[in-house]
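Issue 218. Parser rejects a valid record. Input:
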Amino acid sequence: MKKILLLSDTHSHLDEVILKYVNQADEVWHAGDIGNIAVTDTLKKHKPLRAVYGNIDDDKARMEFSLHNRFFCEGVDVWITHIGGYPDKYNQDIRAEITKNPPKLFICGHSHILKVIYDKKLQLLHMNPGAAGKSGFHQVRTMLRFVIDGEAIRDLEIVELGKK
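Output the parser choked on:
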């Protein structure tokens, strides 16, 4: 069993409220637009980190993290990318692969819009944690936390971090 904290679009922002939730997790996953690499350096000091770079990230982030991160956590096939779209509107760059070989859990960021949608056609769970940072059009900063237990994804919780 693993307790996961999922965040995205920090845009160089990391504060004590986020770190409180980091310390309650077993792993932290970041779906891109990290901003300053100091954000991920700090996260890694607290917990194991899996991350991808986003469209605003510089060469340092792109050297450390990939565009896509596909892995197994317990018995769950996970795919994290920054610009992935959502069910019936997947990004054209990933549409063929996700249709041919769908993961059980597909995670992206970019939109700053928190979404959790089950894709019945591909039988996958899509998650976008919204934005944990203070840059962008979103009004409330958000993250997600959940548990992966064997092949089950459970105990999903929206974490609201307050107004930006």
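Fixed in the parser; the record now loads. The first strand starts at residue 2 and ends at 7.
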